[in-house]
Amino acid sequence: MGERIQITVAKSAGFCPGVKNAIDKVLELAKHSQKHIYTLGPLIHNKQVIETLKEKNINAVNSVDEIKDKNAILVIRAHGIPPEEEAALRSHGMEVVDATCPLVKHVQENIREHAQKGYATIIVGDRDHAEVIGLMGYTQGKGYVVNGPEEIKDLPRLEKANIVAQTTQEGHVFLAAADEARKIARELAVSNTICNPTRQRQKETVELSRDSDLVIVVGGKNSANTARLFQICERLAKKTVHIEKEDELKAALFEGASKIFITAGASTPSWMIEKVLEKARELAGRAESPLLEKLAFGWKLLVTGSLYTAVAAASLTYVCMKLEGAPVSGKFLLMAGLFAFSLHIANRAVEKGAAAPDRARKLLFVDYRAQSRFTAMLCGALAIFLSAALGWKVFLTAAFFWSAGMLYPYKLPLGFEKFGNFPASKDILTALGWAFMCAYAPGLWHGGALSNSTQLAVFFAFLLVFTRSVLFGVSHAHSDMIVGNENFYKAAGPRLTYFTLFAIFILLSAILISLKGAGWKPELAASLLTGMLYYLGLMLFFCFSRIPERITAETLIDTQFLILAALAWKA
Ligand code: SF4
Question: Topology of domain 104-194, per CATH?
């Protein structure tokens, strides 16, 4: 057997906070404003993300003159621009939104303050980079750009100078430049303005590259910070490649490589890194353990193909029927499974960001978008058809939730899309739909809509599915997918999200403890209470650990329903 292959992904990989902030800003604008949205230059240096933004009618222009419709919004991207250019933009009467990264603003302020005190500015960076062009605007005409210590020698002697770094500069280049600057300036202020996210990224890259046989740097070929990472890795690792997409990886690259490190530039979304990781595992892992690779692929197929979600919904229905004291009927399990499967697969087909078909999806569907929509329609229609046996009210409500779920990702006429602007609307709608199909429909069939056990099961299901949907949102946001306020996590932020989820845990546990105490299905209540330990573990894991890649995260989240069903079966 060959040497064990170890693939490590940089913890710091994925969008930096400045890029995240700029993307969130334009997405919120696109959602709430009827105006056209333009960014001055591409928002980030990543083709795939730019394509996704274009689909949302967010387009890049190189100059304000390219915008014919003056009733538009122009966004200044994270790199910032010179103050005089900003003033000129605002004089056009157009709405201007500033998405400059706060850390770049901090450098601009530093330069402005020193310039006001008579300091000349030396910027260590790329003179053609947008951020550096913007910074030069704050130097009051006394600015110099150098790409490293060598170029300092060409500068004139300076009375007072302030040396700053482009935020993505390499630390050692800046320090060497500062040493050189001391020789030409009588008084030198050293402002190391390399941003913290860049420092962490570079530190991790240096530490892990040294020990690697192969380093894969993922990011736009026109991204300066990705190019810089590539240079660092090339100096330290045995073999380094710079790729934009996973399909640029070839098997030959992995020959003889047992320690592989994947890192990425600040404008590379995490979902792209996940795709590269998957491809690297496929190419490197095949030689190591074909069986393990096949098992992993099979599992991925189950989760990506939404089958695991269908099993989760059927499991929840089983738990609810037990709570309701209803005889377990396969019809209801099938109905809920089909309903959840249909909506999940339809929504996956239109996902922004991670939408490009991966190997598992390609295998499931030749033309995955068209065929998954067809499958979703077929399974949804079957679920609604089954619900018709419970009367026209159930039929209409099931049809309503299913249609709302199917149409949710699309812009609808007559202002209906406004529902999607409501914070957490996606999580609430999902929880209502599942609670109806998994708890209300079987409860109605067995004991009537108003029976205590039906109401309890509906409440139980609603809270559990709300939690599930919120955690899916957390996972998607950490994958740098294009998600907005329709997700509770995005709308409320991490603190309030985890506070709410822990509050739900306490509420559900308290209900189960009181049921047990009151002697109402005490064995079932005790079993489900044990299941709540998994819920607690899941919360703690998401709250305190690194959010795992998407397939693992979704598996962990949906497994809670299978555990609860197993415990309910045993009770
Ligand atoms: S690299 Fe740093 S300064 Fe630049 S946008 Fe990202 S966080 Fe902001």
Answer: Cobalt-precorrin-4 Transmethylase; domain 1 (3.40.1010)
